[in-house]
Amino acid sequence: MQDFRVAQTIERRRVLATRGGVQSEVGEWRGQTVFVKTLLTAEPEATLRFAHEGGIAAGLSHPLVVPLLARTPRQLIFPFVPGGTLREVIEASPLPAGAALCVATGVLRAVEHLHACGVTHHDLKPENVLLHGGRARGDAVRLIDFGMSHSRALGTDIHDGTRMGTPHFMAPEQFRGVRGDPRSDLYSVGVLLFDCLAGSPPYEDALGWLVGIHEDCAPLPGPPEVHPVLRAALQRDPEARPATAGEMRAALEKTWNTLRPAAAWD
Ligand SMILES: Nc1ncnc2c1ncn2[C@@H]1O[C@H](COP(=O)(O)OP(=O)(O)OP(=O)(O)O)[C@@H](O)[C@H]1O
Ligand SMILES: [Mg+2]
């Protein structure tokens, strides 16, 4: 990752979105197609959030995590991943069990790297998982968006005490303001797997579940062999979830190995 003092020139720029003082664009930089986030405001909180996101992305390096190519005080430059998000794939149709398990396994591989680096993502959801070439496979996963992440290496946590996150995908303890517990990410991967299989997340009224006023979970989707993994990841109590991303990935791989012979005949 290169750290520049001066703004980099991006050619053939096309704006994709502008939100919270940050503009996302696709363009060309040094001969490759890039996805650029540009900070448009001098507002202190947005500036801090932007620096935080860049600082966390800069410390990661894994084939299933989108790499930060370059950073200036107002730009974050990533390679443009063609193919769209996992959300777009799910919207077209829920995934067959094999594809869902492989995508979730890929996400967990990326998450294992984050956790080994002392980073908790805190916003895992299909919108933040790109699929290279639009393929619903583990090796096509590219994890993005460290805007809400927590890093043990950073002395201060800019999101400390907040309830930041996306209610459908947020673990109950994260909703209560607990930051930096890797098991919160495992809950989110459980919801993501549920969403892949069912086409929607488990709780229609996610806030009601988070505050503890109901337990109305939609029926577990997919083959019954997957249900123990879903059930374990979606536990309200983090202690009752898999202890690590590696443990959850091993359980998914074992499940897929039992299903694969039958799936081959589908
Ligand atoms: N490297 C990339 N290549 C291609 N598309 C990307 C890339 N990074 C992000 N995107 C697209 O841009 C969207 C927003 O990016 P990101 O999640 O990093 O920002 P955000 O802060 O969540 O913004 P928003 O709130 O608008 O979703 C993603 O959901 C995805 O569609
Ligand atoms: Mg996002």
TrEMBL record:
MF annotations from Gene Ontology:
protein serine/threonine kinase activity
Could you list this entry's UniProt keywords, alphabetically sorted.
Kinase, Serine/threonine-protein kinase, Transferase
Pfam families attached to this UniProt entry: Pkinase
Query: Does Transferase count among this protein's keywords?
Result: yes
Record-linked PANTHER family:
PROTEIN KINASE DOMAIN-CONTAINING PROTEIN (PTHR44329:SF214), SERINE/THREONINE-PROTEIN KINASE TNNI3K-RELATED (PTHR44329)
Classification lineage: Bacteria, Thermotogati, Deinococcota, Deinococci, Deinococcales
Q: What is this protein called?
A: Serine/threonine protein kinase
Report the superkingdom from the record.
Bacteria
Gene3D superfamilies recorded for this chain? Answer: Transferase(Phosphotransferase) domain 1 (1.10.510.10)
InterPro entries in the cross-refs? Kinase-like_dom_sf, Prot_kinase_dom, Ser/Thr_kinase_AS, Ser/Thr_Kinases-Pseudokinases
Q: Which residues form the Protein kinase domain?
A: 4-257
Please report the organism this UniProt entry assigns to the protein.
Answer: Deinococcus aetherius
